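FIELD: query
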Amino acid sequence: MDKLRVGVVGASGYSGAVASRLVATHPRTQLVVCTSDKLAGESVEAHLGVRGGEGLSYVPNASAVDQADSLDAVLLATSAEVSMRLLPAFAERGKQVVDLSGAFRLEAGAYPKWYGFPHGSPGWLDRAHYGLPELFGPPPKGAAVVSNPGCYPTAALLALAPLVREGLVEPAGLVIDAKSGVTGAGRQSGEAYSFAEVDEDTRAYRILSHQHSPEIARALGRLKEGVKLTFTAHLLPVKRGLLATCYARPRPGTTAARAAECLADAYGRSAFVRAMPPDQVALKRVVGTNACHVGATADDDVVIAVGAIDNLLKGAAGQAIQNLNLLNGWDEALGLRDLQRSSP
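FIELD: result
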């Protein structure tokens, strides 16, 4: 059986490295290109720690498009500015593209405010499928481009969206309080992300200016009109894992039992999302897997929904492989089903 030839651009970042490892061990893909300026010329297999990249060396990022003829598909673990340029270049050459950045998640007019620059490839925004399969299904037939959701939006949307969609909560006044391990910020050497600064501390960051705010609002707006929300991200002193706690006003008739039932119904056949009591949703149960655990409860005044994921798997590289599977008509859990959580 011929394998899908896959490249990973930006393969030395946290998400890119995990994506490379998943491609290398996937039963129907072959890792044929890995780009990294930092690791250029070094052995891919040695850095990944798994077989599957035998004889393969990292090549510079600038040569990524030059490798297109050797590829069937590419995963872009690059910044939004770089992805804006690379996604069209690969797609126009007939390659499948899954972009892990935020380059194709919003409307063109939102990019100056939320990303700090104008969109360089606006014609591709409507052509990129927003790849949160549990809510928006697989890419349409014939699609070749997927915009992988952000980590915070993945956890928040999977916990909150069914409640919004079914009219159990008011769409305005939503509050999302989310916390992620430091790998969510990527590989950074700045003082703010050093061990001495992060250990035994938790802090909010990018308050009222985080680019995932409009992404969450836009996705919820596809399900219900009138969505208004406040999102705040926090940095946790852990390596991996993300927890989103969402608050909403209940609509008449919403009870704790109905909120829990809504999530159970939404994900009863899901390969990766599990509904459970909200106080059982925890990082240790999902880190190392492509799972998302969600739970919800309510009283007369508030509905609380909680979601937990591994920010590098379901929040990035794992979901990218899930989307690659769906692009090719495979079982969405292929190459992901046997991942094991990293704690007892």
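FIELD: remark
The chain has two domains: 4-127, 152-309.
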